[in-house]
């Protein structure tokens, strides 16, 4: 996997340079929906990433958030690209955003990179080879109780009034040390991988949001399932990533939230 990971790292740095140069300037913003924004920086970052990947691996599929890629029918390998995870943060000058590039083989993540160009943190992982932050191996936390855990989640930018997650947020706020909502799922998953967060859950993520991050959590010794404990397919309706030690307890709280009126 080294050749795939090397390309992803190099490409993420190039795309990150675009974002870093533009994030504190006035933004050209348009809307994909009522509140779902996209900037010219998203598009420029994606165009660069897709061009680099397509040039090196023309037979691979590419699924990218802004539609610049093309899923090759029957392709064994497919790249899942978020050129700017945390666009709302970026547009508001809040330095919590990243380039996320993940490669899946037959639907299973095998290589991934998440790069925050403001903090210069490069998270990398390859299947069976561990997870790293700026070249240093990382692992999930050793926390074994939800009550002393710091956990994270996210909320959709559209149909927020119909999101069941507010019920989960309430239950986890009562039962954990704290809940954070930073608005960048790829970074949240990386923070589980390196032990800053002990758990992360969210609804409705796309494959480009989580391909790289899911692999990072698993390679750092964590566990990724859906909220019911089943296998999580990329882009599935809900995801739960933890350090493994509190996974069962988090599922129990999720079940309480569901009984309290939420629906998975």
Describe the structure.
The longest helix has 21 residues, at 2-22. The chain has 7 helices and 14 strands. Helix 5 (185-193) runs parallel beside helix 6 (207-219). Helices cover 34% and strands 25% of the residues. A hairpin with a 2-residue loop joins strand 5 (98-105) and strand 6 (108-116). It is α+β, with helices and mostly antiparallel strands. The termini are far apart.
**H/E element string?**
HEEHEEHEEEEEEHEHEHEEH
Question: Structural class, judged by helices and strands?
Answer: alpha+beta
Give the number of domains.
2
Ends distance: 35 Å
The rounded Rg comes to 17 Å
Query: What percent of residues are in strands?
Result: 25-35%
Strand order of the largest sheet: 3-4-5-6-7-8-9
Q: Uncertain segments of ≥5 residues (pLDDT<50)? A: none
Topology-level CATH name of the largest domain: Fructose-1,6-Bisphosphatase, Chain A, domain 1
Number of strands: 14
> How many alpha or pi helices?
7
Output the CATH class name of the largest domain: Alpha Beta
Portion in helices: 25-40%
Mean pLDDT: 90
């Amino acid at each position: 996997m080294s050749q795939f990971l090397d390309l992803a790292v190099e490409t993420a740095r190039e795309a990150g340079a675009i974002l870093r140069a533009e994030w504190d300037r006035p933004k050209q913003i348009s809307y994909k929906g009522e509140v779902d924004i996209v900037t010219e920086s998203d598009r420029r970052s994606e165009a660069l990433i897709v061009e680099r990947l397509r040039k090196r691996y023309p037979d691979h599929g590419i699924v990218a958030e802004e539609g610049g890629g093309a899923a090759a029918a029957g392709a064994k390998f497919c790249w899942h690209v978020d050129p700017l995870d945390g666009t709302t943060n970026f547009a508001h000058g809040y330095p919590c955003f990243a380039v996320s590039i993940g490669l899946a083989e037959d639907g299973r993540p095998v290589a991934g990179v998440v790069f925050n160009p403001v903090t210069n943190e490069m998270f990398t992982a390859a299947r069976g080879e561990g997870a790293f932050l700026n070249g240093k191996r990382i692992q999930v936390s050793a926390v074994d109780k939800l009550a002393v855990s710091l956990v994270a989640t996210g909320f959709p930018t559209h149909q927020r009034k119909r999101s069941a997650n507010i019920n989960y947020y309430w239950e986890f706020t009562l039962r954990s040390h704290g809940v954070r909502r930073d608005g960048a799922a790829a970074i949240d998953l990386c923070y589980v991988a390196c032990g800053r967060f002990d758990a992360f859950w969210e609804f409705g993520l796309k494959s480009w949001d989580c391909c790289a991050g899911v692999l990072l959590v698993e390679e750092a010794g964590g566990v990724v399932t859906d909220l019911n404990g089943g296998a999580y397919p990329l882009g599935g309706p809900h995801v739960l990533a933890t350090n493994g030690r509190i996974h069962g307890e988090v599922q129990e709280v999720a079940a309480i939230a569901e009984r309290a009126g939420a629906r998975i």
